[in-house]
Amino acid sequence: MSRTRSRVWLAAVTTLFMALAVGVAQPASAAQPAFAAPGQPASAAQQAFAAPGQPYTNPIKSQKGADPWVVWHEGSYYLITTTFTNKLLMRRSPTLAGLATAPSVQVWEDTTSSRGTNFWAPELHFIDNRWYLYYSGARVGAACCDTQRTHVLESAGTDPMGPYTHKNMLAGSNLTPGPGWLIDASPMRLNGSLYLLGSGFIGGSAQSLVIAPMSNPYTLASNTFSIISRPTHAWERSSDPVNEGPVALQRDGRTFIVFSASQCQTPDYKLGMLTYAGGDPLSASSWTKTANPIFQRNDANRVYGPGHNGFFTSPDGTESWIVYHANSSSNGGCGNGRTTRAQKFTWNADGTPNLGTPVATGVSLNGPAGETATTPTAYRIVNRNSGKCLDVSGGGTADGADVIQWTCHNGTNQRWRFEDLGDDNSRLVNVGSGKVLDVNACGSADGANIQQWSWSNNNCQKFRPVVADQGGWVRLVNLNSGKVAEVANCGTADGADVRQWSRMNSNCQQWQLQPV
């Protein structure tokens, strides 16, 4: 995206079975490099007999679906997208289809004035036994978007959902406006060295693809960037000359960089590709650009402005997949109206990727091969202290029915749907009653009771799951009060009341979201 507009996007990385990605790998042993080697193609036999995954339809995320990034890790997909706020939210599901309704969990919030607003283009990478989140953020109070800088977060352990800590801001001394306007950062391992790809301006250039060496996942070896691609072709200059969103794709010893071209406000936002020709990766002469775009609008399928992509491999390793955002109308622009889509792609005989054409929304497609779980329809919410489930007392359907904890069972009064409201918050809908989690009388005091009520679209009925600890433990934070759902007095008995209280970091205030 150009620096004079807002944007969103997502892309994808690979883990143990995902050998397509940018050199982001599973935990490295002493005998392994920090990043995975380039992936190997599936054999014809594997491709012929791979069982399809669970059916899905595009979009796989409708609310805040731009700039998507998908990772498959230890039985789950993880999806993160741009928010345009000071928060990053992630979804997890055992199937691709399940990402459409999975809870949006806050994994990071930043109130620091130098970096705490307008988050764009998060990418998730597993490097040296830790997850790293790369995103661009702006200074609070600054005009959009001149202070956009790249930031790096590091996970406490090996859970993709964190918790995370801020490690560094990556800025280039020769990037303008200075020091260091840089977006769409993405790491790449090539010839045994680590590089950071991104999009920026150098010496009066148009918005171009830039690269710098790295000494570790959160430190630049040199803060001077080089340009490896400028928007010179006509198809890269629709509305504005732009190259952005670079993502490395590696297979059979070859390295490609797939990038987004033209202004994101236009329906002609699209994907181009660079091919590594050997030599110094910091030199533009080492990269060859395709003469034509490799993925672009499909008017027949009502897909406009497809771009800002990522790649992942099916759970069984036999299929290559692309995730990207697009609009369903030609005037959709580059805001929160863009949605996340995914589809399988193939490889040409010459070893280059064949992304095909963007598929229409609402059409049932086979999910990635190797999915073994069923697609979740709802979630149990299990208290960490007691091991019991969030429950509507007696299965009541009336407004005001009390919310308690109870031994987990298969009743619909213990099943909850998380419905994304598009403002970093969700409503929690009880499957049995169809009513939502609610703080009684919109109370803001400690001890205010939590109940169910008909949807009134007020902040007392809006909650945000926020990562509390590794292993999927979250707090349920009420938007109105800022307080969290807890089991009263840390009770462990059936029927113990659920209320709101100031955060105390106790297990009585932590919950696990279990798909059912």
Description:
- The chain starts with 8 loop residues before the first strand and ends with a strand.
- Strands 11, 12, 13, 14, 15 and 16 form a six-stranded antiparallel sheet that branches. A five-stranded mixed sheet has the order 1-3-4-5-6, with no helix packed on it.
- With 516 residues, the chain is mainly beta.
- The chain contains one helix and 37 strands.
- β14 and β15 form a beta hairpin.
- The N terminus is likely disordered.
- The protein has two domains: 359 residues, Glycosyl hydrolase domain, family 43 (Tachylectin-2, Chain A, 5 Propeller), CATH 2.115.10; 137 residues, Trefoil (Acidic Fibroblast Growth Factor, subunit A) (Trefoil).
